[in-house]
Amino acid sequence: MLKANYELELSATDRLIFEQLVPADHYLCQLKGVLDFTPCRRLVAECYAPKMGRGAIDPVRLLKLLLLGEHYALADEKLIQMAQVNVAFRFFLDWPLAVPLPDPSLLSQFRTRLGTERFQKIFHEILSQARRAGLVQDRLRLKDATHVIANIAIPATLELVAQMRTKLLEAAESFAPEEVTAHRQRADEIRQSSRDQSNEARLLLRVNHLRDLVAWGDEWLPKLTDVARQEPFVELLAQAHKVLNDRQPKAQDQLRALTDPDARRNKHGEFYDGYLCDVMMDADSELITALNILPANADEAADAQALLEQEESAHGNDVQQLSIDAIGYNGAVLQALSEDSNGPQVTVFVPPKEQPPPHPELFQGDVFTLNAAGDELTCPNGETTKTRYRDGKQHGWIYHFRPAQCRHCPLRAQCLAAQNPRARKVSKNDFQAQYRAAQQRATTTEYKQIRKEHPAIERKLNELVRWHQGRHVRYRGRWRVQVQFLLLGLVVNCKRIVRLLRTAPTAQPA
């Protein structure tokens, strides 16, 4: 439980040492002067029992320790060693020299105790202090993402299936020991009998065994009543289902490793396994206003709405404009961002993707008109069709005229290419109005000015990656990676706030 008072009395020796050894222009001294971390204690109070247990170590000091670790790229054990002898660290923490520091393992427990939800609240609490100081404006947000490499080794498919089988049997041993023993015996038999076979044959045998094991697990689920046993087994059973589905010929979103089941594969120059760090930043103050961690193959463009909602729900503000790179040129995303039942939400500035038609000399889709119901298309010659089907991305309808309608059409030469003797197909996108608005906006002077501001978000991502080791994750699991980058975002924001709020040095007399 939390104590009623966390004030630690500094001795006269402590004050003398801090005054003599920590200069007033030290970064930690300036950070301590411009930001107040004590409100964070209230935000995490629900994580502690109100009247049980001994008094907990001050969560504000633990939070400051985590910030020091991320700022100076120190692992937990090294961080405690440095805080033991670094006077500036002690001054920032308000930790008397005679009071012992906590065990490094407590920092890991603290991260787990708070989880992503409380770290999100802490992140926005510090941002709200910058907002009250007049730093954050709602004029323009810049959004971009960078790739993050997971801390995993990718096993071969044969090894992945074997690992999945082993973990599932270990989770089931507590409630079905006899059946688990039988499955392990079968696994040994498969291993012995397939030793000299090809890898394809060995994989097939193990996949079939895992499929039987998953079917057996599905039958056991209704019988489980103990939550402590059920939760880990249900989670592993869901992973086993995914491993089997990933073996299908056209499977997407493949699980890469059981050590980090949330990591995915994508391509950024070269293929990598990991996550996307998606960031939104205030263009005026260059403070990060929202941050999210996505699987590497996630829809980065669609996350723009989630980032805006994250900030606006935390601060009650109303962002006016958003600048996003070409990946945001997506009709569904543009519609979700720019339209609302009560009027425009946010003006989106995105570079249009040039898609020249394959035959510009022929009739284009805009000369084909839809009826009021939107289910019948009329060509320039007056022929109509209701034959249609959805395109592959589910972003529009493709209308198909009959060959008899096009065979003797007087406008055939203006409608069909010579190598296409059959009928005309016309695509009508659901989001044509949004694309036209984005294209029209890209011709304005305001667009050109905003695109000049956009590189600031790339510099911010470079700061996370280059100066705070943000290219590689330290932990495994999406929520742990989210905590790591929320702390990184908080560290970067603290640096920026200090730079914006610190008092300019005065000239010394000659």
Structure description:
With 510 residues, the chain is α+β, with helices and mostly antiparallel strands. It folds into 4 domains: 12-136, no CATH class; 157-245; 268-353 and 437-481, no CATH class; 365-431, no CATH class. The chain contains 19 helices and 12 strands. The strands form 3 sheets. Strands 1, 2, 3, 4, 5 and 6 form a 6-stranded mixed β-sheet that branches. Helix 7 (105-132) crosses helix 19 (478-501) and helix 9 (177-193) packs antiparallel against helix 10.
Question: Topology, pairings included?
Answer:
Elements: H1 12-21, H2 27-34, H3 39-43, H4 59-71, H5 76-85, H6 87-93, H7 105-132, E1 140-149, H8 157-172, H9 177-193, H10 199-220, H11 227-245, E2 264-268, E3 270-282, E4 288-295, H12 303-315, E5 321-324, H13 331-338, E6 347-349, E7 369-370, E8 377-378, E9 384-385, E10 388-390, E11 396-400, H14 403-407, H15 412-415, E12 425-429, H16 432-441, H17 445-453, H18 455-467, H19 478-501
Parallel strand pairs: 1-5, 5-6
Antiparallel strand pairs: 1-3, 2-3, 3-4, 7-8, 8-9, 10-11, 11-12
Could you list some keywords that capture this structure?
disordered C terminus, alpha+beta, 510 residues, single chain
From the helix content, strand content and strand pairing, which structural class follows?
Answer: alpha+beta
Provide the low-confidence segments as ranges. Answer: 504-510
What coarse outline follows from CA principal-axis ratios? flat
Number of E-type strands: 12
The helicity comes to 40-55%
Percent of sequence in beta strands: 5-15%
Largest sheet properties: 6 strands, mixed
Q: What is the CA-CA span between the terminal residues? A: 56 Å
Please indicate the count of domains. Answer: 4
